[in-house]
């Protein structure tokens, strides 16, 4: 018997399918970088509704889709909530130091410009 959640599984690239250029593209957008910074700072899964982004709901959905399809985040349904977790282990194994360097650079930029990472 198929569980009700099975029809709601979201497609994710396998670790071996994650490409550097897709990750860099996903992180090149300020809103997506902000999502990743929040996920990294929290260190836990967060629901989509947790994020207070200054964009429409459809644009927020697009940003999460880009992050998921690039392999940066993993999205799973927990009840009616779509939870997002940073794929840190996969990214660190494939591209050692990349995520930490990008997060540190985003933090320095935030201090320098006073904008939100």
TrEMBL record:
<keyword id="KW-0238">DNA-binding</keyword>
<dbReference type="GO" id="GO:0003700">
    <property type="term" value="F:DNA-binding transcription factor activity"/>
</dbReference>
<dbReference type="InterPro" id="IPR036388">
    <property type="entry name" value="WH-like_DNA-bd_sf"/>
</dbReference>
<dbReference type="InterPro" id="IPR011991">
    <property type="entry name" value="ArsR-like_HTH"/>
</dbReference>
<protein>
    <submittedName>
        <fullName>DNA-binding transcriptional ArsR family regulator</fullName>
    </submittedName>
</protein>
<dbReference type="InterPro" id="IPR036390">
    <property type="entry name" value="WH_DNA-bd_sf"/>
</dbReference>
<dbReference type="Pfam" id="PF12840">
    <property type="entry name" value="HTH_20"/>
</dbReference>
<dbReference type="InterPro" id="IPR051081">
    <property type="entry name" value="HTH_MetalResp_TranReg"/>
</dbReference>
<dbReference type="GO" id="GO:0003677">
    <property type="term" value="F:DNA binding"/>
</dbReference>
<keyword id="KW-0804">Transcription</keyword>
<feature type="domain" description="HTH arsR-type">
    <location>
        <begin position="12"/>
        <end position="106"/>
    </location>
</feature>
<dbReference type="InterPro" id="IPR001845">
    <property type="entry name" value="HTH_ArsR_DNA-bd_dom"/>
</dbReference>
<keyword id="KW-0805">Transcription regulation</keyword>
């Amino acid at each position: 018997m198929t569980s009700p959640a099975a029809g709601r599984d979201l497609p994710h690239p396998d670790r071996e399918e994650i490409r550097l250029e897709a990750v860099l593209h996903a992180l090149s957008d300020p809103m997506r970088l902000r999502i990743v910074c929040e996920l990294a700072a929290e260190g836990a899964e967060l629901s989509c509704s947790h994020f207070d982004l200054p964009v429409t709901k459809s644009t927020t959905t697009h940003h999460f889709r880009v992050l998921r399809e690039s392999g940066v985040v993993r999205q799973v349904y927990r009840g009616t909530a779509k939870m997002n977790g940073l794929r840190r282990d996969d990214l660190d194994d494939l591209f050692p130091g990349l995520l930490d360097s990008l997060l540190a650079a985003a933090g320095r930029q935030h201090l320098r410009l006073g904008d939100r990472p």
